[in-house]
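Aim 2 progress update. The chain analyzed this quarter is reproduced below.
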Amino acid sequence: MARRAASRIHASASNRDSGQGIGRNRPVSGLAAKSTVREAAVVREIVIVAFPGVQALDVAGPAEVFAQAGGYRVRVAASRVEPLATGSGYALEPELALAGVEVDRVDTLVVAGGEGTRAAVADDGLVAWLAATAPRVRRVASVCTGAFLLARAGLLDGRRATTHWAWCDELARRFPAIAVEPDPIFVADGAIRTSAGVTAGMDLALSLVEEDLGPRAALRVARELVLFVRRPGGQAQFSAGLAAQAAEYAPLRELQAWIADHLEEDLSVAALARRAQMTERSFARAYARETGRTPAVHVELLRVERARLLLETTPAGVEAVAARCSFGTVETMRRAFARRLGVAPAAYRRRFAA
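Predicted structure tokens:
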């Protein structure tokens, strides 16, 4: 597959900072060297661990964040220096073999994920290298299913962690010593960070830039890459609407979409049953069976989600937010936040407002 790759991303020291423009064959090391900040007092070395079947964006996404920040040197390492098929139509060629990594120079170790994780966790040499290397670096992070490699190396035992939402149950089942959190975009527990799927690795990398270089540097990178300046780790991996199971029965599926666009309406069971042209009892049963939620729970989750967005992105007061989201009263919104998020609206704003 590597020989048929449409393009390769090379990570060799010889072409670092080659001055090439942005293009298909732009080197990963070039990404790391070319930045808006050419000089920095401290250059932190980031080693991204890859393997056959790696998710390409798990490597390139964080690498680009660090590259744009400046003050970092990004190197890609694998068990052997050979093209790694990604399943995305091109190959990644690591700069280093794991045996060639100068561990004492490494600041942060990032373990990528992807379909190849299944085989990688059975690679005893890779797992042993991670277990031996992690205690010697300042930080360790994983992107997506890279958490399985950290878990296999025993690095997540007794810690909180996350991974792609579709694999959280499997991570918890296989490694019961880990407190798996399925909702957050990323989780920080001491020196170890784990992130959710794919693009969440860029959110995690941006948080590391903010930690190292400050919020202004993170803001500049976010603007350059057209990212959320801050999509905090405590936020959910996906929206309440996406999390809900889509109804198979067409009238209920259409009603689901209508609810999301009409949160200011009367969304009581009686009103929704009338709209669905069903009796209240039949509607409530059918809705719960088809979507996995009662109508009241679904409406509350959508209203909480809208309120969260307003608290994060607008200066509107808590009372105004409660009114705009049709909670009726501030106290009703507070109770909903306590049930769904475990925090009051004002405290949520203090933590997550951009």
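Confidence is low (pLDDT under 50) at residues 1-40. Residues 141 and 193 are 4 Å apart (CA to CA). These observations will guide the mutagenesis experiments scheduled for the next reporting period.
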